[in-house]
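User: Reviewer 2 asked us to show a designed sequence for the structure in our supplementary figure. I'm pasting the structure tokens here. Could you produce the per-position amino acids so we can include them in the response letter?
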């Protein structure tokens, strides 16, 4: 029997986690944390529907915590197999997991794991090249393809063979936008029997407005007001993209990248130039580095971070976390949120239940370090920097298939978004889309 079980990102955006069974062989595909509201985060503490000790390997599409952050818990629960991923994913994941363990100890009364599980997980990460067919276990063959979502990200082509019969499965992982800065575009999908596709933006389209002019306008307005421009951004990918875009616009302002993790991620980016798109490779060659910019100051240590406050505004601070859930950005917010001269620029997806989502929805105050801080700063939102394709792009990606899959499963979206995509795709001749539910087990091939 060949089966796929949805252990996360089913009816919600986070917690991507799948159990794939071919005969007696079992592997995981992604193992991410649930994030967002307390109810969703509580799912991390529920007993997993499967026993990790019985799994032989794992495939990891990319290094976002909602795809890799549960791996150390699997290891803590007895999983000891290889975790296959691309080289950039391997490096970025070890960065993410150390950070995750730290956050858990700081924030959670019942951490899912600690540094010792992370230390046992990292040696299990095994590098695979893109477009190389890998034998994961007998009967499961995987090929990693460019997903254009974050450095090293992949969608997976899986050939599942049992008793001489082959089932083809494509797992989209998270798909990026066409023409995203730095990254190559997602590779088109391959013919398959089953396809699992993300629906983060199943009900929304990104703005078609070019990012550069809008970003420079926001920068100029912040400069005119003489205030600080704070850009909360994920330490990995979004921060590098912002630096890349700002370097091109060359604003006459100091730019501080205030995040030790972003600083390390910058080095990982610089060592993977072969993964950049042509423009980024060219710029990186000319400038002597992708992120080389004379006004950029990378603040890795906390004393470098504190020194930022000694500068006279205007200046720009890029700092994590992107949804204002933790990290150094909170210290910047504490100073700036109630200052009408300052600007907070939100640039990415803001998940339900996060401070970022509250701010975006027009909250009058935010809770920071146990205090309610009134929002008097200007709040801006820059669309088009999201790491996820919108539904039009996802659907263009799907429609490159000449034959529809037998069944398509929609995951990684809020309920409204999943429903919108389901309705749209089911209207295509020959297509059948189903919204996966948590712990649902789908038989891909009977005995
Ligand atoms: Zn992702």
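Assistant: Here is a per-position design you can include in the supplement:
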């Amino acid at each position: 029997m060949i089966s796929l079980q949805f252990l996360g990102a089913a009816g919600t955006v986070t917690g991507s986690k799948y159990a794939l069974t071919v005969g007696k062989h079992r592997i995981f595909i992604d193992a991410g944390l649930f994030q967002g509201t307390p109810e969703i985060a509580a799912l991390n503490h529920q007993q997993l529907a499967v026993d990790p000790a019985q799994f032989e390997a794992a495939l990891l599409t990319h290094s976002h915590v909602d795809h890799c952050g549960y791996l150390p818990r699997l290891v803590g629960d007895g999983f000891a197999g290889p975790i296959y991923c691309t080289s950039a994913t391997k490096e970025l994941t070890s960065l993410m997991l150390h950070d995750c363990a730290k956050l858990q100890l700081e924030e959670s009364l019942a951490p899912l794991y600690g540094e010792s599980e992370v230390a046992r997980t990292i040696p299990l990460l095994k590098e695979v090249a893109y477009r190389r067919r890998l034998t994961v276990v007998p009967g499961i063959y995987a090929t990693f393809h460019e997903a254009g979502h974050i450095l090293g990200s992949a969608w997976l082509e899986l050939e599942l063979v049992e008793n001489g019969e082959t089932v083809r499965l494509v797992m989209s992982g998270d798909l990026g936008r066409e023409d995203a800065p730095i990254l190559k575009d997602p590779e088109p999908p391959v013919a398959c029997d089953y396809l699992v596709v993300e629906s983060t933006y199943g009900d929304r389209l990104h703005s078609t407005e070019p990012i550069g002019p809008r970003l420079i306008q926001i920068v100029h307005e912040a400069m005119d007001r003489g205030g600080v421009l704070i850009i909360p951004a994920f330490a990995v990918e979004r921060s590098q993209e912002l630096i890349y875009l700002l370097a091109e616009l060359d604003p006459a302002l100091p730019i501080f990248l205030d995040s030790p993790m972003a600083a390390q991620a910058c080095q990982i980016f610089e060592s993977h130039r072969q993964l950049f798109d042509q423009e980024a490779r060219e710029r990186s060659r000319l400038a002597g580095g992708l992120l080389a910019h004379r006004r950029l100051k990378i603040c890795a240590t906390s004393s470098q971070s504190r020194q930022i406050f000694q500068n006279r505004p205007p200046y720009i601070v890029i700092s994590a976390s992107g949804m204002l859930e933790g990290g150094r950005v909170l210290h910047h917010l504490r100073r700036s949120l109630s200052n009408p001269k300052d600007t907070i620029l939100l640039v990415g997806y803001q998940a339900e239940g996060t401070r970022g989502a509250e701010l975006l929805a027009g909250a009058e105050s935010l809770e920071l370090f146990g205090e309610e801080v009134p929002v008097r700063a200007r709040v801006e939102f820059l669309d088009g920097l999201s790491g996820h394709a919108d539904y039009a792009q996802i659907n263009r990606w799907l429609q490159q298939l000449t034959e529809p899959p037998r069944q398509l499963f929609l995951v990684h979206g809020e309920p409204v978004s999943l429903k919108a995509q389901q309705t749209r795709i089911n209207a295509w001749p020959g297509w059948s889309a189903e919204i996966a539910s948590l712990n649902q087990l789908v038989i891909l091939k009977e005995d």
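For the response letter, you might also mention the following. The pocket of zinc ion is lined by residues 62, 64, 67, 149-150, 174 (CB under 6 Å). Residues 88 and 151 are 6 Å apart (CA to CA).
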